[in-house]
Every structure is written in C-alpha cells, then in structure tokens.
Amino acid sequence: DPPHNLRVSAGTTIQFSCQAEFDPSISDDFEILWEKDGMALNGSENARYILDDGVLEIINVSFGDQGFYVCVARTPVDQDMAVAQLSVV
C-alpha cells in the first residue's frame, strides 16, 4: 500500500507507511528508502525522523517538514515508488 497525503497541525507526530510485495527469496536484497523533496532521508541526520521497516515517523512536525515524501521499494532487479504530500497547518 502506498503512503497517503497528510494534513496535520504543527507539533504532532505522524507516520507514513509504505508496504510492498516482493519475492521472499530475495528478502535479503529488498529495501525501502525514503526521500523528501528529492533528497534521501537518513534517520541519523535528524533525530525527529524515525525510519523502521517501511514506516517513516516524524516527531514534533514543523512547517519545515512540509513537502513531498517518496517511498522507494527496491530490489536488485526492480524498484517502485509512491509519493505522499505532508501539509502542516
């Protein structure tokens, strides 16, 4: 299932979920990556961003978190992506 657009108040915690089906025989080579506005997200760069098993959690959302989030499900032979927009009010 792709992530869904969200419209939230500043200061809340949100989750984008990205579920993908893949051949279990290549599970070691399957990964889900997240990007925001074209830049790769890395949980170690921002402590408010938690990436875990296809879920992106953003703690204490701020206006700077607004944008387009892309979920990339990737294997060595294929990849698929889905986009969701975060709006902060």
UniProtKB/TrEMBL annotation:
<dbReference type="InterPro" id="IPR013783">
    <property type="entry name" value="Ig-like_fold"/>
</dbReference>
<dbReference type="InterPro" id="IPR007110">
    <property type="entry name" value="Ig-like_dom"/>
</dbReference>
<protein>
    <recommendedName>
        <fullName>Ig-like domain-containing protein</fullName>
    </recommendedName>
</protein>
<dbReference type="InterPro" id="IPR003598">
    <property type="entry name" value="Ig_sub2"/>
</dbReference>
<dbReference type="InterPro" id="IPR003599">
    <property type="entry name" value="Ig_sub"/>
</dbReference>
<feature type="domain" description="Ig-like">
    <location>
        <begin position="1"/>
        <end position="89"/>
    </location>
</feature>
<dbReference type="Pfam" id="PF07679">
    <property type="entry name" value="I-set"/>
</dbReference>
<dbReference type="InterPro" id="IPR013098">
    <property type="entry name" value="Ig_I-set"/>
</dbReference>
<dbReference type="InterPro" id="IPR036179">
    <property type="entry name" value="Ig-like_dom_sf"/>
</dbReference>
